[in-house]
Amino acid sequence: MSKKNKSKEKEIKKEVLDETVAQSEQTEQTNETDEHETPIVEEQEMCKEEILKNQLDEMNDKYIRLVAEFDNYKRRTLRERIELIKTAGEDILKDILPVIDDVERAIQNIDQSKDIEAVKTGINLIYSKLIDFMKQNGVTAIETTDNEFDLDKHEAVTKIPAPSEEMKGKIVDVIKKGYMLNDKVIRYSQVVIGE
Fold first, then answer.
1. Where are the alpha helices (DSSP H) in the chain?
2. Which of 24, 133, 159, 188 stands 20 to 30 A from 100 (CA)?
């Protein structure tokens, strides 16, 4: 080999060596940079995880409290409803007690009374007092005599031949009176219909 070739070969080796050293230094710098950046990235990810975990814990706590409050609300309203059902009729029963007292007095005096007209008058007074009490509480009798049959208010017990042509399909007789509480039927009238 000639000297020229040898010197060229040395120069190429030197260049290759220089490039390798430069690449090594660059790799070391990159590694150093990555080492400094990696903890920062990891810290940021850990902070995000902690924040999310804290938010999740907070939401779970709110959920548990909300469920507990709702359970307490259900128990309280159920207890109040049971109490209301137990005492709902108290006012009505207090108002009907005077009528019962009148009936008891009438029963006691029936045996002793010789005046049948006075007994009739007393019973009629008690009856009118009871009807007034019912009206004050929103209970009214369903009108049935000579009316058209209405499925919403009447219950047909039987059919009989109509006494006249105009009474066909109408109520001929009432077996049991029906009553409404405000606009709701609480007992249907049991009626006989003409056919």
1. 3-87, 90-112, 116-136
2. 188
